[in-house]
Amino acid sequence: MITFPTPRIAAPRTVAGVTLSQTLALMLPAVAVAWSAPLQFVALFLVAGGVALAWEVLFCLVRKRGFSFHGITTALIVTILCPPDLAYWQLILAISLGVVLAEQVFGGRGFGFLSPATVVLSLLMISFPQVELPIPGAMLGLATVPGAVLLILMGLVCWRVMLGAGVAAGVLLSIGGPVTDPGAVAATLAFGLVFLVCDPTASSTTRAGRWLYGVLAGGLFVNFSQGAILPFEAMVFAALLASIFAPLLDRLVILAHAYRRRAGNKGGGRHA
Amino acid sequence: MRHFHIRQGDPAPQTPAPAQQVENIGLPREVALLGRDIAGVRPHFVVSEGEGVTCGQTLFTDRKQPQIAFVSPASGVVSKLTYGSRRTLDLCVVTVAPENEKPSPHKMPDAAPREILQARGMWSAFVTRPFGRMPAPDAVPDAIVVNAVHTSPQAPDPAVVLEGQRDAFHLGLSVLTKLTPADVFLCQSPGKPLGPEGERIIHASFSGTMAAGLPGTQIDRLCPVDFGGAVWSISYQDVIAIGHLFGTGTYMARRVVSITGPQAATPKLVRSVLGARLAELSEGGAAHILSGNPITGRDAQFLGPFDDQVSLLEPRPQAADPSRQARRATIFRPLIPSASMEKAVATDTYAIPLARALSVGDSDAAQRLGCLGLIEEDVAALTRRCTSGTDYAAMLRRVLDELELDAA
Questions:
Q1: C-beta atoms of B368 and A258 within 8 A
Q2: What is the pTM of this model?
Q3: Which of A108, A127, A146 is the last residue of a domain?
């Protein structure tokens, strides 16, 4: 075959490859969280993964499409973020609704505009107010770093979004005064940005749109974490709201770009 | 000279490069004109099957625009003539017989340059943006872009091809300036200017990925047309042929092509003929021959009129179960945005929104994203980098056809 020079790690060319890379990136964070209560973690993951994959397989069979096994990454993210003593029926309900409503009704992985993990966690918090997401330790933040580097090199996570969000959150936090638990906030930012906000199908796809999207997500996170709100809950809602606005941001950026191009072209819109 | 470095698109493949030295080879046994290279043209044949023709003699004209002629690239006998759907051309094969050659050059008529180009078979060398078609006979472009950029070491180096042809090339450039009151851009690789710096002949240099050698990229940087205007592009070898036509009165179908690829025993440059049968150029070796480079080239039996490279590849692996593979190809797969897709298209656009618009055939959104400045070859890299397996070239053509109908 013809070999093309690849200056860096190439992006996977299949959807299953994307799932595999994201699962790999999630391995260390999963170990960091499972360390304290491995049995509970594995049990929750098996339930979450089983339910998510069951829905995916069901929809794929009905639609006669190939599987992407994306349910595994959704289940991993949810298991890492949910409390270890979560009731199984609550998890099953939230995963079912989240996977079906945020992903499968749109046609499956890559066809929707939301990250299913974000929607599952939002549903969990809205439906069951007594469920509290755990406060992350600094270990989770450190464990996120290798996966983040891998995904950035593969082009599946955009560094512009991360930088925009990080700067926005940093500026707002420094204006707001001292943070009570900086370790937890940093770990939340790291994990939440890489796996919730920067999900390739949920984030903006234009360059300017990505900066705006990152700033929006970072700003919303700081805004939501005022008062007694736990950091992960603020992050989940910030990711949800930001990804709802992502298509609008893209749309505005594209319209502005088209306006600028039209003004710059010869002939002044003869075909436009 | 303005310089542009192109970072988007695919880098040149790393296969053995030919020695940049042109080898003169004899005429092929067969040459052909293909309907897919002149999409939209319905031919009106002035010769019939079995009739003898000379090089440069009109084979057929465009039914709607009879002043535009398509000529034989070699002397011989019209041996095969087939129509496609709706009386378009499928294939017109000329079996070469050099003894039919008449040495006397035609006298140049005293006519406008564009009429001569149309009557003598050089009009189809132009490709318009938008839409990527042969220009209308009376159209006046906002610029003409001559592509002489050498992006891949596997392709012929224009500086080598132009040796000994400089006069014809300069004459050809001056003919181009008579087709438009606007500028003629000569795009080349960095180095010594390939043409004369003159009034309305503007040099620009391009370097970087394979996308630097696409006229779509050059037009985008020099005189974009995605929101209005029209620009024609032409290859430097066709400009030499135009200069030859105006200088000597004879039609010149000789083109330098490189024979490369993993299956080429010794990569080399040869002086062949437009529409030459590729199996003869490949020394009977390769099972899988592309006209063009491995990125934008296509499976072909005859040399395409816009190609200066022939790629000999290994035969494609046979699928264990063809029906299963065919079923797999029809599965609608998702598009997962990635940074590599984002850098696939070299024009000033947003590749992922463009890919989304094309994959669902949304012509309004595609137009907002500048698809009028693109043709199939500009989005070839997008197809290779996308998880969905969508053929963006085919989808772009569908959208362009729709927009062309709307514009008419």
A1: yes
A2: 0.90
A3: A127
